[in-house]
Predict the 3D structure of the following.
Amino acid sequence: MKDTGYKKWMIYVIATIAAMGGLLFGFDTGVISGAIPFFQADFNIDDGQVEIVTSAGLIGAILGALCCGKLTDRAGRRKVILLAAIIFALGALWSGFAPDFSHLVTARLFLGIAIGISSFAVPLYIAEISPAKSRGMLVSMFQLMITVGILVSYLSDLYFADESSLSCWRPMFYVGVIPALILFVGMLLVPPSPRWLMSIGKEEECLSVLRKVEHPDLIESSFEQIRTEIRKDDSRQGSLKDLAQPWMRNALIITIGIMFFQQCVGINTVMYYSPKIFLMAGFDGAVSAIGASVGVGIINLLFTILSVYFVDRIGRRKLYFTGLSGITISLLALAASFLFTTQLGEAGKWISFLFIFLYVGFFAMSIGPLGWLIVSEVFPQKMRSLGTSIGSLTVWFFNAIVSFTFFKILRIFSIPGTELVSGEGSQENPAGVFLFYAFIAILAIIWGYFYVPETKGISLEKIEAYWRKGGRPKDLGKERK
Ligand code: BGC
């Protein structure tokens, strides 16, 4: 049993190194918020141009997810993550050096490609190298590192922010080079995915990786399972046409569905606009800026730790329904606190404060990590890289839609007579938009009842075999052994 301990240690190190890709994802998403006021003044650009800089990153991410699915099959998961690390490092340097607006846009677009790549290649790699028993926990480390990255970026923005120096935004971007280098060097040291090795016919190498990461009693059976399932596939790489096969339909619906709901419950409106939301709730400038971003970042991180701990213990479905019920209740309470803002007086702003934090917490313990995890689990070997890249594409696509429509939806759903009045005049009440997201969260619960599979402790090969048999997602966990 002693050497099992050693192997356990090994897989944690491997997963942590790969999850640095998540840290960079989070860092490069978050860093922009603190840099905006400074480069806007430095380059003398308007709000529309700032929006172009921000969306360049999202478009880059879409491109990264769109173009690299196949490459991940051909070159291997590890090499593609190495490529992302190089792009992360160069992109961070380029963003920091950018002499003008157009350079900054191109640099952010370039960096976005790495975010897009790492968002599917990292969970894919971790899922394929992890033993079934701890796969949930290990893949959820990706989300954990996203939240660490977001928090680090807020803190480092705070550290470098200097009202007396317009160019203080440059070091904010440079910091991103450090985790990129760690990711690069680390990925040179970890082994390739054993399942990918098997898929390109390297059986011996596959076995030798399994020896390092799998429990000694399970090495043989895992190896046989992987070999059997891969032999069932006629050709090595999956194509979009293969996705249309009826037995693949569940994996596709689960992937697009869970990522649609992950984004459409509105999480990134809080991630990107929390200072504004806190202002609407009645907080003053300084408290909202620091309290909102750092506080939200800390809650996000703490609740993700909870999820990492529980995901292989209580399972995916329980976490999903607990989290989404919490999200729904928090959003309804948030809407109520905004609707009755005059009646609630001073208490109202603290109630909104509490429920924004709870909302982020419930997201962080459920659909945040579960989205990435389940997508990395449900596809058969041959389709996994294409499938996970579709998952990332769905995330980035709906992320863009939700972030760019927040203020428009806010206006559309504003309830007449409930305008918020502050020192700066009156503005629309966000109660309606939170009710709208609560409605989507309720749909997510209903959808989840049918489509969220209990993949806890089941090997990727057994999940594949289950779909081939025509099993329903909601009954997957019941088919133990
Ligand atoms: C989502 C991101 C979000 C982050 C917040 C991730 O799971 O995909 O869009 O910003 O969670 O922690």
Notes: The radius of gyration is 22 Å. The mean pLDDT is 89.
